Each structure stands twice: as structure tokens, then as C-alpha cells.
Amino acid sequence: MAEILSLSKARKAKARVAKEQAAAENRIRFGRSKAERQRDKAQDALETRRIEAHLLKPENSEG
Asked: What is the DSSP letter of 4?
């Protein structure tokens, strides 16, 4: 015979699982330390400077 269960409890349990899954995805996406963020920002700035150094005509010069 089938087990009797409360539909409201099942719905809430399903919502809890979905919420935990979304939280796990957010931890992966946004869960970087301050040092990692600063390192990435510094690396991006270095790459930008290197690219701009190779430009034939700088953007802010006239002529």
C-alpha cells in the first residue's frame, strides 16, 4: 500500500531543494575572495595597458 504524505510538506521540501540548488550555483558564480577579485582586476588593467601601448594612434591625442 502507498505511503500517505502531506502535499504541503512535499511542496515545501521541493522548494527547499530548489532554493539550495540556486544557492549552490550562486556560491560558485559569486563566491570569490577579495584577493581573487583584486588579482583579476589588476590582471585586466595590465592587459589593457599592454594593448593600448601597441596602438598606432592613441585615442586622446589630436591630429
From this structure: P
CA distances from 35 to 11, 22, 28, 29, 48 (A): 40, 25, 16, 16, 20
In sequence order, what DSSP letters do the residues of 15-61 get, joined into one string? HHHHHHHHHHHHHHHH---HHHHHHHHHHHHHHHHHHHHT-SS-TT-
pLDDT band at 22 (very low <50, low <70, confident <90, very high): very high
User: Taking the model in full, what pTM does it have?
Assistant: 0.45
Q: Report how far residue 28's alpha carbon sits from residue 23's, in angstroms, rounded to the nearest whole number.
A: 9
Q: Specify the amino acid at residue 45.
A: A
Spatial contact of 52 and 58, defined as CB atoms under 8 Å apart: yes
